[in-house]
Write a structure and sequence with these properties.
This protein is an alpha+beta fold. 53% of the residues lie in helices and 11% in strands. The longest helix has 45 residues. The termini are far apart.
């Protein structure tokens, strides 16, 4: 083998080695980012703390056009969704984001009890929904899910509540932005009997309630609430997580509600 060939082979070998080194560095960087983000989520879950609000509202994904509020809204500018008996003496305000994993944990543990207490008239529920996780994590799942929930609300408060529950029961990992796909949201809507009317499907596909969702999100940002989930009963914040960061049991939740109502 000539010296020229040896030099050429050596040069090719060096290029391959340099390429492998570069790829290994890129992979280490990628893994570090993924691990860092995952660790932050795990720490938040372990602590049982609300996911903190930072960044924008996620409203960048809102469709342009006039704000069309769904039927059955309440509150200033139709930014509040009320579930339960209108004449209930007490009000439970729930602040949440459909992409929030801690909201899902609370819903899984206490969702049925929270609804039962509304159904029996102990309180009515006011939902204040956010989309800040779109800005924090990237994507548009929170906003799209909220806009689709608006379309469900337009079909009826009961349809909204059922769709709300289906979204949490099928919540994707918040890093994947699974709710960013409107077709996936429509598939999930199929789990709610009678929800997928022609009007509902058109509203979801057209983003009819996207500007409204942005307005709801802005109302959340202006509320002074710093994270999700946050629950307030007659203005008093409920501590719905134990010292280990786990949601309290359904029985404990009912006791907490009764104590708060009695103290008021």
């Amino acid at each position: 083998m000539s010296n020229q060939q040896k030099k050429a082979n050596k040069s090719a070998t060096e290029r391959l080695r340099e390429q492998r080194v570069a790829e290994q560095k890129a992979e280490k960087t990628r893994r570090r980012i993924v691990i860092g983000v995952s660790a932050a989520v795990v720490v938040a879950l372990a602590a049982g703390v609300a996911v903190a609000v930072s960044g924008g509202s996620g409203g960048d994904h809102a469709a342009s056009g006039p704000v069309v509020a769904p039927a059955n809204t309440s509150g200033p500018d139709g930014t509040v969704i009320t579930y339960g008996k209108a004449d209930a003496k007490h009000t439970l305000k729930i602040y949440e984001d459909f992409r929030c994993p801690i909201c899902e944990r609370l819903e899984t543990t206490n969702g049925k009890t929270i609804q039962q207490l509304a159904d029996n008239g102990t309180y009515k529920i006011e939902y204040h929904l956010a989309t800040f996780l779109d800005a924090n994590l990237g994507g548009k799942g929170s906003h799209n899910a909220l806009a689709a929930a608006g379309a469900a609300l337009n079909e009826g408060t009961d349809k909204f509540k059922q769709f709300h529950d289906v979204l949490y029961a099928n919540q994707p990992n918040e890093q994947t932005d699974g709710f960013g796909d409107v077709n996936h949201l429509l598939d999930l809507a199929g789990k709610v009997p009678g929800l997928k009317t022609d009007a509902f499907v058109k509203a979801v596909k057209d983003g009819t309630y996207a500007p409204w969702a942005a307005k709801v999100s802005q109302a959340f940002n202006d509320s002074g609430v710093n994270g999700t989930p946050t629950l307030m009963l007659d203005g008093k914040t409920l501590n719905v997580f134990d010292n280990g960061g786990n949601p309290i049991s359904s029985a404990q939740f009912q006791t907490l509600v009764q104590q708060t109502v009695s103290a008021g």
